[in-house]
Amino acid sequence: MTEIFVDADACPVKDEIVRVAERHNVGVHMVSDGGIRPNPHPLVTMTIVTQGSDAADDWIAERIAAKDICVTNDIPLAARCIEVGARVVRPNGEPLDKNSIGSVLATRNLMTDLRSAGTVTGGPRPFDKKDRSKFLDFLERTIRDVQR
Q: By the 8 A CB rule, do 75 and 10 touch?
């Protein structure tokens, strides 16, 4: 059975995930190091991991399986999930898969190097309604596709 795993600490689409999951009766794992409000919905399991840079990522990567969906902006976590056959989507609706993850990882590493060198100081553009809509569309289509 398909489940949704959410790297929940900075996820801006938690409510949207629960709405879509409810429509399809899909369980949701909100994984955090404690910085989010509990969600009382019966389909949602809140998991609080120990503080640490990769604790939530490790928890998700150890449990996610093929046909599951991961919602994350964390590129190394996305790569680990794709490796086991899971679907991955960023909160802005951008899907990540076997074909795209290599270049996304390379870009992430390059930007990390440029930021640490002080060459680049800005981040991504602000999250907006278009991103939210794109995310909802992708999640809806993906759940339908996986459940066939």
A: no
Contact 56, 7 (CB under 8 A): yes
Q: In the chain, what are the domain boundaries?
A: 3-147
Question: pTM of the predicted model, to two decimals?
Answer: 0.86
Question: Which CATH number, 1.10.10, 3.40.630, 3.40.50, 3.30.70, labels domain 3-147?
Answer: 3.40.50
Q: What is the largest CA-CA distance in the chain?
A: 48
* Torsion sign over Cα 128, 30, 60, 32: positive
pLDDT tens for residues 10-62? 899 999 999 999 999 999 999 998 878 889 999 999 999 987 778 999 999 99
Cα angle, residue 63 at apex, residues 57 and 67 outer, rounded to 5°:
105
